[in-house]
Design a protein that fits this description.
Number of strands: 14
CATH architecture of the largest domain: 2-Layer Sandwich
CATH class of the largest domain: Alpha Beta
Shape: globular
Helix content: 25-40%
Order of helices and strands: EHEEHEHHHEHEEHHEEEEHEEHHEHHH
CATH superfamily of the largest domain: ATP-grasp fold, B domain
Strand content: 15-25%
Radius of gyration: 21 Å
CATH topology of the largest domain: D-amino Acid Aminotransferase, Chain A, domain 1
Largest sheet: 6 strands, antiparallel
Strand order of the largest sheet: 13-12-9-10-11-14
Structural class: alpha+beta
Distance between the termini: 39 Å
């Protein structure tokens, strides 16, 4: 029997915390404890949480470290596993203190973290490293910005420098439309906070990775099958694909960034089958359970890496995965004879999580 591992998820209100919990619950030797800054997050209602601790406060408050270390000692935690950006930033601010009381998974250091979480810094990094990415221009009140705008190829996307889940993104097919839009805004208020990025016509390819010191420990590659009803948001259904060229592109990015941690990388595949890097999301992501269905349990492997337990590079299977809401729609369309996809296996639909952990899933959907 494997030794029991006690894991603390410290950011219960994160969009990815329940997905992380479900992946860890797939391993019988893992006990998951949860810490929340809010009193009633979805994870509080999960049947898979061994305990829930409520400690109001903020991760950027220096005094919050005492709350965290208190829970670690009380629950005899082996691994501290942040799922989202705020908790990872907390580790970066308190890494030495935490390493003295608990094991930490590979996580990006401050420089890596800043590059990954700022789309303009990402674009600059790609340019200096000679890595493929779309032409990108930072919005500025400087007259040179308007001149550079004339040279961009349309359509383009106007994006906040820091955003997630497609929030704040707008598409412009003509220069005149973008100039009119920017002219209606107070440039001083958006300068440095938005960027303009050329839109490459091609499928979105997602690269999911766990790495240490620039070396791949685990990865999966996914492509959208059914888009999200929310424009520019994560796909409602995906398929996992195997492509050596895409794998090499991921290895090169991880090596150039000397990356530590887990991340979801959004790319656009152009007509030459070259991946152009759009975003590096240095945290867990929404299709974690899909990767587990395909054969790679990223949260569990991150825990093994934290404990310095070696494991081989996991192979994964070319399966599809439907998020629960998309799965329900697909079943209804199948009954009505309107389904676009055929022969979908039950294991490819995330409804089992809804059925086995219903209150937590409903609370997560409600809060979102």
């Amino acid at each position: 029997m494997e030794e029991v591992v006690s894991v603390l998820i410290p950011d219960a209100a994160s969009s990815f915390a329940l997905f992380t919990l479900h992946c860890l619950a797939d391993r019988p030797n893992v006990r998951v404890h949860v810490l929340g800054q809010e009193a009633w997050p979805a994870l509080r209602f999960s049947r898979y949480a061994s305990s829930f601790s409520y400690r109001p406060g903020r991760f950027d408050d220096p005094a919050y470290l005492d709350c965290v270390t208190d829970i670690i000692r009380q629950k005899k935690i082996d691994v501290f596993l942040p799922t989202d950006s705020d908790a990872i930033a907390f580790v970066n601010s308190n890494r030495n203190a935490l390493k003295g009381v608990v094991a930490l998974p590979p996580l990006p250091g401050p420089e890596q973290f800043d590059i990954a979480n700022n789309k303009w810094l990402t674009a600059q990094f790609l340019r200096t490293q000679g890595l493929p990415g779309p032409n990108t221009l930072l919005v500025s009140a400087d007259p040179g910005f308007w001149q550079a705008l004339q040279e961009m190829k349309f359509p383009v996307m106007l994006k906040p420098v820091t955003s997630r889940d497609g929030d704040g993104i707008e598409r412009f097919d003509r220069l005149a439309d973008l100039e009119r839009h920017l002219g209606s805004l107070e440039m001083a208020s958006i300068a440095g906070r938005f960027l303009v990025q050329e839109l490459i016509d091609g499928p979105v390819i997602g690269l999911n990775v766990l790495a240490r010191a620039g070396e791949l420990l685990a990865f999966t590659i996914q492509q959208a099958v059914i888009p999200n009803s929310k424009r520019y948001s994560a796909a409602g259904a995906i398929k996992f694909i195997q492509n050596e060229r895409f794998e090499l592109a991921l290895r090169e990015l991880v090596a150039r960034l000397n990356f530590d941690g887990y991340a979801n990388v959004d790319t656009l595949c152009d007509q030459d089958q070259q991946l152009n890097i759009i975003d590096i999301n240095a945290r867990f992501w929404g299709s974690l359970r899909g990767s587990m269905v395909a054969g790679v349990n990223f949260p569990y492997l991150a825990c093994l890496a934290a404990l310095d337990i070696p494991f081989p590079l996991s192979a994964y299977h070319p399966v599809r995965y439907f998020h629960p809401k998309t799965g329900i729609k697909h079943i209804l369309h199948t009954l009505l004879g309107k389904a676009e996809l055929k022969d979908v296996a039950i294991k490819e639909v995330g409804l089992n999580y809804l059925l086995l952990d219903p209150i937590a899933e409903v609370m997560r959907a409600y809060r979102q």
